[in-house]
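Researcher: Before we compare anything, I want clean individual predictions. No alignment, no superposition, just each chain on its own. First chain goes here; please echo the sequence and then give the C-alpha cells.
Model: Echoing the first chain and its structure:
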Amino acid sequence: QVQLVESGGGLVQAGGSLRLSCAASGSIFGINAMGWYRQTPGKQRELVARISSGGSTNYADSVKGRFTISRDNAKNTVYLQMNSLKPDDTAVYYCNVVSGAYVYWGQGTQVTVSS
C-alpha cells in the first residue's frame, strides 16, 4: 500500500510564500513523475507543476516565475515552493505520483491567500 503525506498548506497574505511537501511511503518502486495539482469548488483539477525522474519540469502558465517544484529521490519527496502568492492561488493542492502504470494522489492540503 502506498501513502502520500502532504504538509505545508495554510493561510497567507497576498505576496507571501508557502512551501508544500509530499512524502511517498509504502510499497512504491521506481517513481517516475511527481507533481502538484490544485482544485477549487466547481472547477476541474488542474496541473500546477510536474517534475520527471530526470528533473525536467513544467508549470502552468499562471505560476511560472513564482512557483518552483523540486524533488528528493532519496526521500521519495516532492516540494512546491510558492512565492508571490495571489488570491487566485487559493485552492486545495494535491500531490500526484506516477510509478509505472500506477497513479497515486495525496489527500489534499488547503492553501488560502488573503487579499
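Researcher: Okay. Second chain, same rules.
Model: Second chain and its structure:
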Amino acid sequence: QVQLVESGGGLVQPGGSLRLSCRASGIDFNTNVMAWYRQAPGKQREFVGDITEIGTNYYTDSVKGRFTISRDIDRHTVYLQMNSLKSEDTAVYYCNSPRYTLWGQGMQVTVSS
C-alpha cells in the first residue's frame, strides 16, 4: 500500500533549524519525484521544493539556500532540512508524491520567539 507518513515539526525560534521526515511506503525513489509543499494560515498551498529520481533538487526562491531536501533510499524516507527559519515559514508542511497524487498528513511548523 502506498502511504506517506510525516514526522518532525514543532515550535522553533527565528533563526533556528528543524527537520521534517516523510516515510514513503510502496514508492521507489529511483523512479519517482518526491516533493514538499506548505500551507500558511489563510493562504493557498505552495510548492517548497522537490528531489528527482536522480537526486537533483529544485526549490522555490523563498527557501533557496536555507532548505535542503534529501532522501535515504534504504529507509524509504525523504527529509526537509530547514535552516535560518523565519516567521513567514510558519505553515503546515506536506510531503507529496506527484505520481500517486498522494499527500502526507501534514506537520505544523511554527517559527516564533
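Researcher: What stands out in the second chain?
Model: The chain has a mean pLDDT of 96. Additionally, DSSP finds no helices and eleven strands in the chain.
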